[in-house]
Write a structure and sequence with these properties.
Distance between the termini: 45 Å
CATH topology: MetI-like fold
Shape: globular
Structural class: mainly alpha
Order of helices and strands: HHHHHHHHHHH
CATH class: Mainly Alpha
């Protein structure tokens, strides 16, 4: 118990003194996760609008498939991206494997089903009279979708925040396509596992505290958005 307490004290010391390695890993994690969240949002919000707005055969089945992928194992996504970006894969020529860019792509694929499903749910809950009124005033389909998105902006914002939380807390994709290269692709989750295995408990605890703090901020952000809604 004493060793654990001493390790926690040293971990807090690393945080409050802004240890270079701790700051570098944390900042890299935030950059990668933020980029993947933005990329996923650019895909999910327009696509969610189209799916929600239009009626077509198989729509319910498509939504069920999207929701099924909420719990897809991160290693499965990592394996898929790895095969796509490896030298023998169709995108191997881009040279993205074991780079932060590969991690962004992998995390974006991982959180896309969650953000897309929640976006569809948010847009579906908007009063249909808003859409009908917008169309009756001569708006195009794109303008009508945008009006609905603005109406559901708080719920969509919550979906984006949740997507970010999922991205920054995952480890499988980052490990498989990033390679956990110190100073280049190592992020909070992979660094915690690596440092703990090497016996560097203080650094692992410091990174764990930061990750928990980010998770708390994400939770508070979601609650704040839902209260505003």
């Amino acid at each position: 118990m004493t060793e654990l307490w001493d390790g926690l004290v040293q971990a807090l010391h690393l945080i409050v003194t802004f240890d270079d390695e701790v700051v570098d890993i944390a900042w890299r994690s935030l950059r990668v996760s933020a980029a993947s969240t933005v990329l996923a949002a650019l895909i999910c919000i327009p696509l969610g609008g189209l799916i929600s707005f239009r009626s077509f055969r198989g729509k319910r089945l498509l939504i069920n498939v999207i929701q099924t992928f909420y719990s897809v194992p991160t290693v499965c996504v990592g394996l898929f991206v790895f095969l796509m970006l490896s030298r023998a894969g169709p995108l191997g020529g881009l040279g993205l494997l074991f780079t932060p860019s590969a991690m962004v792509v992998g995390q974006a694929l991982l959180i896309t089903p969650i953000m897309l499903g929640l976006t569809i749910s948010a847009l579906s809950s908007v009063d249909k009279n808003i859409r009908d009124t917008t169309l009756s005033l001569g708006a195009s389909e794109r303008q009508a979708i945008w009006a609905i998105i603005k109406e559901a902006r708080f719920a969509i914002s919550a979906a984006i925040v949740l997507g970010f939380g999922r991205a920054i807390s995952e480890v499988g994709v980052a490990m498989m396509v990033g390679g956990n290269i110190r100073g280049f692709t190592q992020i909070l989750t992979t660094a915690i596992a690596d440092e703990a295995n090497q016996g560097n408990v203080e650094l692992a605890l410091a990174l764990g505290v930061i990750l928990l703090a980010i998770a708390l901020v994400v939770t508070l952000g979601v609650n704040l958005v839902q209260q505003r809604r």
